[in-house]
Each structure stands twice: as C-alpha cells, then as structure tokens.
Amino acid sequence: MGVVQPGRGQQRGRGQERGQKPPDGAGGATRSRRPPAKGQARGAPPARSATRSGPGPGTRKAKGRRNAPVQAAAPRKFSSTTLAFVSVGVVVVVVVALVIVKVTGSSSPSVSNATPVLTAASPSVLAQVEIGVGASVVHAVGLPSSLNPPSVDKGQPALTSGGKPEAFYIGGEFCPSCAAERWAIIMALSRFGSFTGLDETTSSPWDTPPAIHTFAFTSAKYQSNYLAFRPVEHETNDTGPNGAGRRFLLPLTSQESSLWAKYAKHFGISQGFPFVDIGNKVFVLGASYDPSILRGLDQGQIAAKLKNAQDPVTQGIVGTANYLTAAICSITGNQPAPVCSTSIVTQAAQALGVS
Fold first, then answer.
1. 264, containing H or E segment
2. What does DSSP assign to residue 121?
3. Residue 118 in contact with residue 182, Cβ under 8 Å?
4. Lower Cβ count inside 10 Å, N or C end of the chain?
5. 67 or 170, which is more confident?
6. Cis omega before residue 336 (within 30°)?
C-alpha cells in the first residue's frame, strides 16, 4: 500500500553511489634489466645462470649432457562410441537448460520498465467485469477468508452529494493496492449504475508488486440513480525507480483531506492508498486482497479468470465486490432490491454488521 504525506511540493531525495577507481598499476609486475655480461655483445640474449643444487662444495661435478630432443605426443584418438556418448551428453545438457529457462520464466514474468500510459479501456473487458460475472460465480465465491473486510462505524454523519448518498475514493496511479482494488470497486458500483471514460493502465513497474494491470478513474464519470461516486486519483504514476517523476495529479479539497485524515486516525492507521469512504459508514483502508495475485496478467487475462469461482483472482475481486455491494446497499436503503436482496449480499451485510 503506497503511503503519502498530505502536503504538496515535497521533493524526494535520491542517493547515487560511485565506484572507486583502483590505483594505477595495481597488481602489475615491474621487470628489472641487467647490463650485458662481459664479452657479450649488446642485443644478444643473456647467458643463463645455472642454479646449483645437490651436495655442497667439494663434491665431484657430473659431466654435462645435452638434452635429448623432445618428441611431440601423438594426438589421442577417440572411438566412435565415446564420441556418440559425448554428443548425447551435450544434447541432454542443452535440453535441461532450456527446461530450466522455461520454468523460471513462467514463474517470474518479465516486467517492462517503460513508464505506464493511459489508454481507453477495452469494452469487451469492461463487459466481463461489469455484467459478465454470473450469479452462480458470485454466490460460489461468497466471502473468502483470505480477504480484509471493510471497517464500519455507524455513528458518523452521512456523506452525501446532490441529495444522494456518496462513495468517495482516494488513490494513486502508481499504487499496486489501488490497482487491485479498482477491479472490485468497478464491479460493485456497476451493480448500481454505469461508468464512462474509464482508462486502462498499470501500476508502477518499480513498485512492489510491479506493473499490476488495472483501470484508472482519472477521466471516469459515473451515473447512478442510487448514489454518487467521487473518485480522486491523487498522485501520478512513476517515471523511474524510488518514485521518480511522481507528482500530485488531482488536488484534495479541505473536506476530502479532513475525511482522509479523520478516519485514518479513527481506525488507527496511517494515511495511505487506497482510501474508500462509503457514506461515512463503511471504509476501505488499504488493500482488500493481495495484489500480487494479478502479477503478470493483462486486463484480458484477468477478466477471463472471473468465470472460475475457484481461481484466486476471482476470489479476490468478486469476494471484495460482494462486501462493497453490501456496504453500498446499507447507504441506499437497500435499493435496488434485485441487488440488495440476494443471499450473498445479505450474508455480507450481516458479516459487516450493517444489516
């Protein structure tokens, strides 16, 4: 979960290490030259000095012998059987290496370090997220124990806008937890209204986990007869490691800043992304599920998994959407009835204590 300070214009320091150059000539040997021996012509190779070994003075010296010419060893010949075994061994090594590369490559997908961009969301992908998940999958997923349910405080003044109850979101384009949460937010809110202007993008490739494929609310509009939705993407994406290039994107009003600070303190956590305030009654403060389960999957692959109730991706997204749906029903007077009266929404409302 990305953590930010509410102030503006704060610059982030960056450290840079420099390697030290080794001293010149380190490790090199210096040769000394001897003057030519007496009677030796200049430029002629110096005479070798014999090193005496063996018994000390007084012993008889053996007559010198010329060294016998050294015969070159005949090249070793390998049998055809040996060559065959060697060839098979090389093939086996190559095959094993390819298998290792294949296995490690599939478990650790490569991530591009290009700066993420916003592009219009695919209508087919959105359709799978907004209306494509059948009731059987929604009920089969239920409320997985792996999720972090929203927090509830029923003693606060209602949050409204234009005469409707309001849901308010603060996030950042760089934030991997926000990237995961948006899938569930879009799914839940699509049960009460419709989106236009949604973009698709990824979270920061330099954050952890990196490059989570998601949507962005930067240019999105939401229309519903039951509630208002106010999304604020507060910070941009990164353009390099350690938050390089990140800046404030949409400023917060004094009311928005106060809500964020108030409820973070109320629930005893630091102000971080994502923050979702549903009518000042139900609150999401941080990731509802592990964003790393989306790592290495693009938008189409994530959407395609939503048909399988046993897939961890479906468990995270649909399970979180079930909780958010119950939270929204608690501020809309349980309208619309076809959504709020389903058994799974009723079960989620009871689990949250808002029924």
1. helix 254-266
2. P
3. no
4. C
5. 170
6. yes
The token duo for 134 is 């059948």
Per-residue model confidence (pLDDT) at position 77: 53
Residue with tokens 């910070």: 235
270: amino acid identity, one letter = S
DSSP H stretches of helix in 13-59: none
201 neighbors 218 (Cβ within 8 angstroms): no
**Residue 244 backbone phi and psi in degrees, to 5:** -60, 135
Give me the residue label for tokens 């954050």.
Answer: 207
| CA gap 154, 69 in Å, rounded | 103
Going by C-alpha positions, the residue among 349, 295, 340, 321 that lies closest to residue 132 is 321
CB environment 269-293: b (16+ within 10 A), e (fewer): eebbbbbbbbbbbbbbbbbbbbbeb
Strands 119-120 and 193-196: unpaired
Arithmetic mean of pLDDT over the chain: 80
Condensed to tens digits (0 to 9), the pLDDT of residues 151-166 reads 999 999 999 999 999 9
In the numeric block, the tokens 């939401």 are attached to 222
How many other C-beta atoms are found inside a 10 Å radius of the C-beta of residue 250?
Answer: 14
Rg of the chain over CA atoms, in angstroms? 36
For 269-303, what is each residue's pLDDT tens digit? 999 999 999 999 999 999 999 999 999 999 999 99
At CA 229, angle to CA 344 and CA 211, rounded to 5? 80
